[in-house]
Amino acid sequence: MSSGFAAHTTSPQQLYTNFISDRQFDDQDIKTLGLELLTPDETFELLGHTKEWSVKLPYYDIQGQLTGFNRVRLLTPKSKMKYSQARASGSHIYFPPTVGWRQVAGDVDIPIIITEGEFKAWQLTKQITTDGLNYAALGLAGVTSWSDKQGLHLHPSLMQIVWRRKTSFADKSRKVYIIFDYDGKEDGGEPNEQVGMAETKLAVTLRGLGAEVTLCR
After folding, report:
1. Residue 195 and residue 180 in contact, taking contact as beta carbons nearer than 8 Å
2. Confidence class of residue 166 from pLDDT cuts 50, 70 and 90?
3. What's the rounded mean pLDDT across residues 135-143?
4. For the sheet containing 36-38, what is the strand order?
5. How far apart are CA 158 and CA 114, in angstroms?
6. Which of 6, 15, 74, 212 would you label with 154, given CA atoms 20 to 30 Å apart?
7. Could you tell me the pTM of the whole model?
8. What is the reported pLDDT for 1?
9. How many Å is the maximal CA-CA distance in the chain?
10. What's the pLDDT score for residue 189?
11. Sign of the C-alpha dihedral, residues 109, 174, 123, 65?
């Protein structure tokens, strides 16, 4: 319960506890991800707008270092927008902090899963680790966050990843799986037009860089 009357009758600490519980996070998840409950004043101080209780989510770069960029998950959202960030802070790629991204970036034999949402990327990362799979998962804040607002076809952070490697025998392509959010209510269970266009453009861009891309349903 994160909106409406319930949001006003449930304490912020309980809302945070419910948020953590719903995702089956433990203390180690909270510590690893750097999650933090923010008061309305702290949310405003971080973002420069919006006075609401929220969960702070720090971002890490491909080196595993904090970037200084943060998004927040609003616990009592007043609209459909559940996440927020500082205005004009741009798009950022979420690299789960326990992955050796430098090794992943240079090894085209490691398939990459691209999903929508930081917490989904983390859940995938944990499952990959549990199952001992040679995969890596990264998250996008939104279905168009893979592009760069300054004119580049692909976000600079994603350009650090090798998508195809030339060898003495033949070029080798990295396998990529795109898993975006959609309600599946369209004909044939396809995503809506906005999501469909975004994933198609991302697939075309990555294929142009040499990746072997699969759109997952």
Report:
1. yes
2. confident
3. 95
4. 36-38, 54-60, 66-74, 83-84
5. 11
6. 74
7. 0.89
8. 43
9. 66
10. 63
11. positive
3-state class (DSSP) for residue 32: helix
**Tokens representing 63?**
């080196």
Question: Given the structure tokens 């798009």, which residue do they identify?
Answer: 91
Tokens 């949310």 identify what position? 43
C-alpha R_g of the chain = 18
Residues 171/164, Cβ–Cβ less than 8 Å: yes
Identify which of 162, 178, 174, 181 has the alpha carbon closest to the alpha carbon of residue 134: 174
Contact 145, 181 (CB under 8 A): no
CA dist 7 and 75 (Å) reads 8
Q: Which of 13, 78, 90 is nearest to 52 (CA)?
A: 78
Q: How far apart are CA 131 and CA 178, in angstroms?
A: 20
Reading the block at residue 179, the tokens are 């898993």
Residue 124 corresponds to which tokens in the numbers above? Answer: 């995938």
The helix/strand/coil state of 212 is strand
> Both tokens of residue 17?
């506890």
Closest CA to 66 of 95, 103, 101: 95
